[in-house]
Specification:
The complex is a heterodimer of chains A (411) and B (279).
Chain A: H1 2-9, E1 40-49, E2 52-62, E3 67-71, H2 78-86, E4 93-98, E5 101-102, E6 113-116, H3 128-138, H4 143-156, H5 172-184, E7 190-194, H6 202-219, E8 222-227, H7 230-236, E9 239-244, E10 247-252, H8 254-259, H9 264-269, E11 274-283, E12 288-292, E13 297-300, E14 313-318, E15 324-327, E16 336-348, E17 352-359, E18 364-370, E19 383-389, E20 394-396
Chain B: H1 10-44, H2 66-69, H3 75-108, H4 117-129, H5 132-145, H6 152-176, H7 180-188, H8 193-221, H9 225-230, H10 237-245, H11 252-278
Helix pairs in contact in B: 1-11, 3-6, 3-8, 3-10, 4-6, 6-8, 7-8
Classes of the chains: A alpha+beta (411), B mainly alpha (279).
């Protein structure tokens, strides 16, 4: 477990904030709770606040047992969608199905879902035990059963014997674990998580991501996770949906959505992309040719072409880590696309080098080269050729030029 | 700073010591100023009387605890005291419930759902600011014209009226910092609105509610102006005491006064202890 080692070298960490050794404990990796997780379906869900459409005709199906993330910048409608499933907001139009049952008009306390809130929302007047037992008490379990379930759940989240603590005495990471235990102990059909890591520092966040993934595998409950952190979403999810302006821009497994973005927004929000404006010249069964500004022609596999039906204008994309950087004059294989340019910035980042290359067509291209140590790194000012395999090339429909993608997030 | 070795440092040090004494001296002077009349009352509760009238005189005639032993010897006084207690408890209960509800409405709802919210805020302020003599006189006029006889009912109605605003203001201050996601969490965990209120909201705003209730009780127990207009045949404690001052004060009045003060001190100490325990 690389993350643990990192935590230990960085100095003393509070024991309970560590990724627990129990994660790898044999014999407890199976599903502990006898939960029947359920699928979730949003059917034509629209939510309007006064003159603002927060969620616009959302259609989405989350399979039972899945770890699904709604990813997007602030104001994209992801939290509103989650809150509608939790029952805290009423959709303007559409239906929400939970395990096939229409729950659109049920109040939150009649829905078989539980939420981990962004602020954790632990009850400050109750200790850890009473916080976790809150849901069980509402369902009138007997005392012994409540005691058993709470202590079992506190063990799962690695806070054994914390029953008597007040929530104000816990660190952020511990509070989050209590919030998680408080929700999971009710064995909901779906667990909703509303940016639960936003208050944690970067290192703890990485630990909790792995932890959360472990717990999800252990309990087998459907997780619907809302975040603006693309790395977090990709690390944990089975599938994810990228949302923007209340709509889903791209959906699929993290690898699918990353490697094959269908819109310019997805291409730039999920990871970094180099996008070159161009026009489709010809479409054949095996290759699509796109003329980019400056005269070069890019070859794109037809199955990776996303475009508007009404226009031949597209943007040709390639991910920075797919690009090779060679000296001017080197041979370019026929299976590769290539573009010439001059290195403007060369940065050593430890794991590799990052270059910004100015091309003849006026677009700067970012390149990540892994630090494998047998090449002399190009320096700024060097004339180079950028090449990448045709299969790593994709196109997306360009956004209207007036629209700006704001990747920075401040909820 | 090594003040011992350098003689120049002595002067500023001494000045600072004086400065340090200033605050406690000032505080104790203020406390003495506030407590002095109460202490006088408590001392004279142990004073012997001269003559057969058994009325308070402000010359020291010797120590006695007979007024404490015979605290209930004056039927009118005892009756008025219990009336005040009943009145205080009843009006406190009613005004605390209503004031808390009003505070929640004012904090949580806005127009268009809560039409007239701004007017409500003004009325609450006016209710606190309005001279009591005006309230008392107008209430009397209203009850007379409605042909409602003066008595316990009119007293309760008027005390609730002037207490609500204080409860509302106190509870509202507590609610202002209330994290609504705590209530959402309770709903989320299967608590219906009533359970959410009793298990989450109320416990968390309880300090504000109790402070409001305490204030309402204190206002009721020593209200004279309004009660004087509205009490019928039996007068509450302050009105009764005022009534007998023309003749002379029986020492038992001081006994009741001392008792009320002692209970007040007790409540204040309890709240301090409880507050310390929570942290």
């Amino acid at each position: 477990m690389a993350l643990r080692a990192e935590g230990e070298t960085a100095g003393p960490v509070e024991p309970s904030e560590r990724t627990p050794g129990k994660a790898a404990r044999p014999g407890r990796t199976g599903r502990i709770l006898a939960v029947e997780s359920a699928d979730v379906e949003f059917v034509g869900i629209t939510k309007e606040f006064h003159d603002l459409t927060a969620v616009d005709d959302l259609n989405l199906k989350v399979e039972a047992g899945e770890f699904f993330s709604l990813l997007g910048p602030s104001g994209c409608g992801k939290t509103t969608s989650l809150r509608m499933l939790g029952g805290f907001e009423e959709p303007t139009r559409g239906r929400i199905l939970l395990g096939g049952q229409d729950v659109t008009n049920l109040p939150p306390y009649r829905r078989d879902v539980n939420t981990v809130f962004q602020s954790y929302a632990l009850f400050p007047h109750l200790n850890v035990f009473e916080n976790v037992a809150f849901g069980l008490r509402r369902r009138r379990f007997d005392r012994a059963e409540i005691r058993r379930r709470v202590s079992e759940m506190l063990e799962i989240v690695d806070l054994p014997n914390y029953e008597k603590r007040q929530s104000s005495q816990l660190s952020g990471g511990q509070q989050q674990r209590v919030a998680l235990a408080r929700a999971l102990v009710n064995e909901p059909k779906v667990l909703l998580l509303d940016e639960p890591m936003s208050a944690l520092d970067a290192k703890l966040r990485r630990q909790m991501q792995i932890e959360l993934k472990r717990i999800q595998a252990q309990v087998g409950i459907t997780f619907l996770y809302v975040t603006h952190d693309q790395e977090e979403a990709m690390t944990m999810s089975n599938r994810l949906a990228v949302m923007w302006h209340g709509r889903i821009e791209g959906m699929g497994s993290p690898k699918d959505v990353y490697d094959n973005p269908t819109t310019e927004f997805v291409a730039s929000f999920l990871g970094a992309s180099n996008l070159l404006p161009g026009t489709i010249e010809s479409s054949a069964a095996d290759v699509v040719r796109v003329a980019v500004a400056g005269g070069a022609t890019m070859h794109v596999p037809p199955q990776r072409v996303s475009r508007l039906e009404t226009s031949d204008d597209v943007k040709v994309g390639v991910r920075p880590e797919k690009i090779g950087i060679v000296e001017r004059g080197s041979d370019v294989p026929a299976t590769h696309n290539a573009i010439t340019g001059r290195v403007v910035v060369s940065t050593f980042t430890g794991v590799g080098n990052q270059y910004i290359v100015e091309t003849a067509i006026g677009v700067n291209i970012t390149v990540y080269a892994q630090n494998i140590g047998h090449q002399s790194a190009p320096r700024s000012g060097d004339e180079v050729i950028l090449t990448w395999p045709v299969e790593h090339t994709f196109t997306v429909a360009p956004l209207p030029t007036s629209v700006e993608i704001n990747e920075t997030e401040g909820d | 700073m090594s003040a011992i070795s350098s003689p120049e440092a002595v002067a500023p040090r001494r000045r600072r010591r004086w400065g340090r004494a200033l605050l406690p001296v000032y505080s104790w002077l203020v406390i003495a100023y506030l407590v002095f009349p109460i202490v006088i009352m408590m001392i004279y509760a142990f004073n012997k009387t001269i003559g057969s009238m058994q009325l308070v005189s402000f010359s020291w005639n010797g120590f006695t605890d007979q007024w404490f032993k015979h605290w209930s010897d004056i039927p009118g006084l005892t009756q008025s005291f219990w009336l005040s207690i009943r009145l205080g408890i009843t009006s406190t209960l009613i005004s605390t419930v209503l004031g808390t509800m009003l505070a929640m409405a004012l904090v949580r709802y806005r127009p268009p759902r809560f039409r007239g919210k701004a007017a409500f805020e003004q009325i609450i302020f006016l209710n606190i600011a309005a001279p009591e003599i005006v309230l008392g006189a107008s209430l009397l006029g209203m009850f007379v014209s409605l042909n409602i006889g003066r008595g316990f009912l009119t007293l309760v109605l008027s005390h609730v009226m002037f207490s609500i605003a204080y409860v509302t203001v106190t509870v509202r201050a507590r609610l202002a910092g209330f994290d609504r996601s705590l209530e959402e969490a309770a709903y989320d965990l299967g608590a219906n609105p009533w359970t959410t209120f009793t298990r989450v909201t109320l416990p968390l705003i309880m300090p504000g509610v109790l402070a409001g209730a305490l204030m309402a009780f204190a206002l009721s127990i020593d209200d004279f102006v309004t009660s004087n207009f509205l009490s019928g045949a039996s007068a509450p404690f302050p009105v009764w005491v005022y009534g007998v001052t023309r003749v002379g004060i029986p020492p038992q009045v001081f006994v009741f006064g001392t008792a009320i003060f002692a209970v007040g001190i007790g409540l204040a100490l309890t709240s301090v202890v409880l507050a310390r325990k929570k942290v």
